[in-house]
Every structure is written in C-alpha cells, then in structure tokens.
Amino acid sequence: MKKTSLVFILFSILGGIFAYQNFFLNKDIKTNDGLLPVKTEANAIYVADQKPGLFITINMINLNKNGYAVIYEDNQGGFGRIIGGTKLLPKGESMGISANLVRPVSDGETLFAVIHEDSGDGIFSPNLDTPLLDDEGNIVFTIFYTDQDVSNIENLKTKFDQPLKGCIVTGCSGQICSDEEVITTCEFLPEYSCYKTARCERQSDGQCGWTETAELKSCLN
C-alpha cells in the first residue's frame, strides 16, 4: 500500500481532523453548494455531483503552488473527517483528477473538496499541508453531493460560471472530437460517417469526446 494511502487511513482512524477545528472556526468559510465560480487565477476547484463509490473525480483544480484536493465528510454544514484526496498536483490547472477514498461514499451524502498546499515533501500530511486561502483569506473549497442518478456530463456543462473552451468536430473526415483543430490523414473508413449521429461534447472527465447516441450505436454495429 502506498505511503500516501497509509497517511489518509491513519489520519481517518485517529480522528486527526479535529486538529483543524480551531483553524476552520477562525476563517471565513463560504458555503456555495457546488457553485464555486471558476476563476482564471489560482486558486479554484470544481467538482460535479458524483455517483457513490470509492473515488471522486475532481473536474477542475487550479493551483498557485503544488498541492492536493482533499475530500471531507459533512459535519452539520461544516468540514468533518478527511476521507480521501488526490496525489500531489502541480501548480497550474489540472482536470479529470481522481481522488481515492478510504471508505465508499453512499447515495445522498454531502461532501467538501478543499485545496491544501504541499509542505514540500510530496506526501499529504494533515498537520503540515494546510488549506490554501484566496486573496481575501478564505479557504478555497467546493461542496458537492452523491447521487446514484446523477449525470456528471450535464453538471459539468451547466455549473461552470465560465464555460470551458468548446468542443469541435475535426480531422479530415470529421472523425475526431477535440477542443482544438487536429490534422489527420484523409483515409476514410465507413464508420467515420456514423459519428455524424453522435454528440461532440465535454465528458465527465473534462475532456472532449463523443457521446454515444442510439443512432451511433446502431450504425457502428
């Protein structure tokens, strides 16, 4: 088992999250129900509502220094125990990052994704890697929910205050869905014509791709 996972599990068992209680109580924490505006500057994070499971997809995170996206349980509207997080993330924007959990989350839970800085060793430690703050001194976080019937694609498309760069159909035969022009050879395959019935749009991992329709599935078969 990786050292990072051991740190998360040990911290969860010992209830070390309460070491942060005074820190959180003395900061202006803004609850936003998952509608945190996507900023062009660091720091910012967005997580769409998720299906239950053992991992969380961080749709977008922007950092002004190396850090982590850390997942917290809800405790009466505030931060509860840490139940998971990402690997060390580099400065800048990352999309479609997986955060592993120490327990499966069930349907109907409220969770927080909080940005933490890295103290320099590349291993998450709750006592050393504190939450990053915005220019006004607020903890940068977002709220999201677990829902068995959630459509992450729809949430990704509608909850960004500033839309992601649009997806376009590209390639010589219109066979590629991307967020930028792609140059390909002009060899035509019969299945390429099937993609005229598909939707080129942003997927749940934040990348452009084809959304399968009944017509596309029938055509490819």
Automatic annotation (TrEMBL):
Cross-referenced Pfam families: DUF7282
* Top-level lineage group: Bacteria
InterPro entries recorded for this chain?
Slg1/2_DUF7282
Q: Where is the DUF7282 domain?
A: 45-142
Q: State the name under which the record lists this protein.
A: DUF7282 domain-containing protein
